[in-house]
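Hey, can you fold this one?
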Amino acid sequence: MTVRALVGLAVFNVFLLGIGIATLAALRGWRTWHDLVRIGGLAYLLGVALMGVTLSIELVVGIPFSFATIVLTGAALALAAVALRRPLARWRPELPDTRAQGVALVALAGAALVVVYLEALFRSARLSSLSAWDAWAFWVPKAKAIYFFGGLDEQFFRELANPSYPPLVPALEASAFHFMGSADVVTLHVQFWFFACGFAAAVAGLLAPRVSPYVLWPCIVLVLVTPRVVGRNLDPQADFLLDYFFALAALLVALWLVDREPWLLATASVFMAAAVMTKREGQLLVACVVVAGAVASWRRWRYAWPRLALVAGVAVAALVPWRIWFSSRDLTGDLPSAGALALFHNLDRGWPAFQSVVTTFFDYDLWLVVVPLVGVGVILAFLAGARTLPTYALTLYTLVLAGFVWVLWSFTELELPFVQDEGVNPIVRLSASLVVASAAILPLLLDAAWRGSQRAAEES
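Sure. Predicted structure:
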């Protein structure tokens, strides 16, 4: 690790933040500088998602990958967003509202706790070694190949594990290498620290105007300090970045179901596209978000369903070039060896698969009490009179759990044995998606339960 690498990485992330700010200016705008700071985390991860998807598509179509390509791509995205930006009056600078000082102090204390946590995480990130198996076996080697060879090397990818995984994370890692000046796999962990910071800031920024800080900050801190998140969120692989994209897409759809603001769904579509381009299970997670949104909005289906279908179409369109690329080269697919309906050939695996999924999600040593609290939040929200948000959350969590059961059920015992060993069974990595999303969904549920009839009236 060198100062040059750290500075270069910082510049890269400021660059991503700039892309996201330009994009949010087009999608949403902001009325005050305080408002812009509040949504800065969302802007940052929006820039990450846009840049990752665009670079992935450029790699697939054969555009040479270089520092110039990265800079020109980011500049083109920002300029395109600026050209579509709403009138400047929407984001003229104003002084922030300083009322409700008591609540502000609680929010400040909660934010301070998260900052202390992230500072400790940074000290861990800057000295971390490349020890996670998936990271050194194929994620970072793919990034190095893109960095050194300037594109996707078909022969090299074929020799690595999981060649059908989309190239979004390797493309971002290779971009980080270019800004650092070398393939520094130690400093690379700091990039994933930036992602974690951006996620925490994005959730806090989106929910701060509508959820009490007494509820919001404990939920965020609870998820951040779960043993699995503490132990693995700095690994330079795709798992937690996928979880961040999924969680923000799920949160934005939840907010859209209540507020019906077009920018929420438009922004969610970018995160959905990034999710499907991050890992193959992103396709399952995105499908669950769309279906859950459709179920929760069935009363106004003529308005909601076409828009949800359009969002799903954006995600599918983003994935098509990559699927054509790896399918045309006969690389290993992403389905069980017996096909998508292999569960009918493995009926004896159904109950063990269900047990494995449920046991993992409720494992205190992995996730503390996050999932049980979500269940309590759903029940309390229903009892308080809210309908849309608890219906959405219940459907989303049920669909994701069922999807993971299908994953374990469909594969044979040789392909996926029922053990909590990440080297042979992905259930622990998969379960992180809902737990991370709980940092965003749980505060909404508890807020709906607290506000009761008022929240129900807002949802109608």
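The chain has a mean pLDDT of 88. Let me know if you want another pass with a different chain boundary.
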